[in-house]
Structures are given as structure tokens and as C-alpha cells.
Specification:
The protein is an alpha/beta fold and about 325 residues long. The protein contains 13 helices and eight strands. It has helices at about 10-20, 25-35, 40-50, 60-70, 85-95, 115-120, 145-155, 170, 175-190, 210-225, 245-260, 275-290, 305-320; strands at about 70-75, 110, 130-135, 160-165, 200-205, 230, 265, 300-305. It has an eight-stranded parallel sheet with strand order 7-6-5-4-3-2-1-8. Helix 11 runs parallel beside helix 12. The longest helix is centred in the C-terminal third of the chain and has 18 residues, at about 245-260. It starts with 9 loop residues before the first helix and ends in a 12-residue tail after the last helix.
């Protein structure tokens, strides 16, 4: 994935400039967000359920498994994380199945800011990105200067990607411009002295946003503020990624590109544990946003346990036998 500040084409830049009035004031942003089409909850859920019934077999399934592996942000975000654990996770990301070097490597390793340097050194020369959560993850309850310092520290340590959390309290109380300005400020903190920048993933914590309409609104708000990816969840609450919410976010990035010419990625995170679930999400991506999103540059899985199930299913396809968890490495 490129790590330079996006250089939008002339048409896209003109379209974005034409939308500047939308974010000129809190009132203007409110009018725009509340003017977005309301979400048909029943229709959304039915569509997500229908896409989940698609049957993927044989060679298509094998392709989907490898594609899903290549889209994983392999994650460890625990208070007990150690440099040794992070290095072991990095080794697994490079060679997910040590017995089969044909297995693709993962997209990124996601860690806390203090582990970025360790991950960066372990992944040198592999092409795997180092992602870091920031902005007082997972609650986001900190003053803006603290959040910006958190981001700058991670970027200075070598993070290629920053996963920030929005201020859900501000969003739910209707302070949309405050959320917009905070995302913009974090985006600016991702820029390095040489003009390159870490990509910014904006986490909504959709399980706390109460309504589908809010998910659509925060998706557009974040993209207008410069998000490179929009992400469902931290994985630290009861309700994380769900098919209807991810479908809604895919519709949002599709419509945003149609409006502005700017493409934004999507990352469902938390609760996606099986190959069957991962393939359902890939079908949803292809059917909703389209093939342009079917790469790790534009779609990711935030997961830790998903990789092992993908590896077991991959082994089953190649050998005809289900190996079980004892035949994959422990994270």
C-alpha cells in the first residue's frame, strides 16, 4: 500500500473543493449529514442475509481463502503484549503456515504504539505494513493534544498506518464539526517531515452508534475529513463488525467515490472468526463496492483468530483432511 499523501486527480480535487461548503460550519455539516437518505433497516438486513447465502466452491473457495489471508490485519492489542510476542506474531504474518510457503503473507501487523518499533524491525523488507492504534484507543477519552501526541509517536516509530477512534460522545451529542476537525487534525499528524504519511483508518465503534443512519452519517463525515479507511470497531466492545453495518459502509464508500472521485477503504473488525464468515464478507465487497475494492489496499479484516481457521480450511482443500487447531501455530 502506498504511504504518500494522496495526490488526487484534477477532477477529484475539483469535486472535493466543490463540497467545501458542506464542512464550513456545524450547521452546514448537520444539514448535509441529516440530508443523506435514511437507511431502510429491513432492506439492509435482508440484502446482507441474501449475500451471505452465496455458495463458493472448489477453486473459487481456494482463491477466496488466499485473498482473505492477504487482507488480514493480524492484531495483538493486550496489556500483556511483550516484544517477544510481537516478534512471534510478525513471523506468523510473514509465513502464516511454516509448512507451506505458498500461503500469502498478511497485509499488516497491528500493535500498540510502544510496540511499533519492534514490529517494524521484525518486518523489515517483507512489505507487510505496521499498523498502530492511537488517539487513546479504545475509548478515545483524552484531550486532543494527547491524541495527536499518541499519533505522532507511532508515526515517528515507523507506523505505516494509524487506526484512530472517533469521539463517540461528541458524535452522538450532535457535535459533528468537532468530530470532523479532530479527524482532520489526526490526519495531519500522520504526515512525516519528508511529505509521506501513514494511512489513516477511522474507527467508528459501530456497536455504540445506536442506528444505521448514524453509521451512514459518520461514514460520510470521516471520508470528508480525509479518512483513507473507515473501520467498524475496536474489537473491545460486545457488538463489533456485523454484515449489515459493513454492507452500509461499503455502500457509503461506493457512493463517495461516485460523488468525489476519491476511493476509501473499508475494514470490518472484531467477531469475524471463520472462513465461512470471511467469504461472506468478500462476496459483499464484490457485489456492493465492486472489484476495485477486492485487494488489501482497499479492504481489510481486523482479526486475530480468523487466520488460523483460514489456514485449517486451506489445508483441508489441499489434503482432503481437516487438520484441526493443533496443526497451526499459536498466536
Amino acid at each position: 500500500m502506498p504511504t504518500t499523501v494522496p495526490a488526487y486527480g484534477k477532477e477529484a480535487a475539483e469535486r472535493l473543493t466543490s463540497m467545501a461548503d458542506v464542512t464550513a460550519s456545524d450547521a452546514a455539516l448537520r444539514r448535509f449529514l441529516h440530508g443523506l437518505p435514511g437507511v431502510d433497516a429491513v432492506g439492509l438486513q435482508a440484502r446482507a442475509a441474501t449475500l451471505g447465502t452465496r455458495s463458493i466452491k472448489t477453486t473459487a473457495k481456494a482463491y477466496a481463502i488466499d485473498l482473505a489471508i492477504s487482507m488480514i490485519d493480524l492484531t495483538t492489542l493486550e496489556g500483556a503484549d511483550t516484544p517477544g510476542k510481537v516478534r512471534a506474531l510478525c513471523a506468523k504474518g510473514v509465513h502464516p503456515d511454516p509448512t507451506d510457503r505458498g500461503v500469502p503473507q498478511v497485509a499488516a501487523i497491528c500493535v500498540y504504539p510502544d510496540m511499533v518499533a519492534t514490529a517494524k524491525a521484525a518486518l523489515a523488507g517483507t512489505g507487510i505494513q505496521v499498523a498502530s492504534v492511537a488517539t487513546a484507543f479504545p475509548a478515545g477519552r483524552a484531550a486532543l493534544p494527547v491524541k495527536l501526541a499518541d499519533t505522532r509517536d507511532a508515526v515517528a516509530a515507523g507506523a505505516d498506518e494509524i487506526d484512530m477512534v472517533i469521539d463517540r460522545g461528541a458524535f452522538l451529542s450532535g457535535r459533528y464539526l468537532s468530530v470532523f476537525e479532530e479527524i482532520k487534525a489526526v490526519k495531519e499528524a500522520c504526515v512525516r517531515a519528508d511529505g509521506t504519511a501513514a494511512h489513516l483508518k477511522v474507527i467508528f465503534e459501530t456497536g455504540e452508534l445506536q442506528t444505521y443512519d448514524n453509521v451512514r452519517r459518520v461514514s460520510w463525515l470521516s471520508m470528508l475529513a480525509g479518512a483513507d479507511f473507515i473501520k467498524t470497531s475496536t474489537g473491545k466492545v460486545t457488538v463489533n463488525a456485523t454484515p449489515p453495518v459493513t454492507l452500509l459502509m461499503l455502500e457509503a464508500v461506493r457512493d463517495f467515490r461516485a460523488t468525489t472521485g476519491v476511493q476509501v477503504g473499508v475494514k470490518p473488525a472484531g467477531g469475524i472468526r471463520t472462513t465461512k464468515d470471511a467469504i461472506k464478507y468478500l462476496v459483499m465487497v464484490n457485489e456492493t463496492a465492486g472489484p476495485d475494492w477486492m485487494t488489501a489496499d482497499w479492504f481489510r479484516f481486523g482479526a486475530s483468530s480468523l487466520l488460523n481457521d483460514l489456514l485449517m480450511q486451506r489445508q483441508k482443500l489441499s489434503s482432503g483432511r481437516y487438520s484441526g487447531p493443533d496443526y497451526v501455530t499459536v498466536d
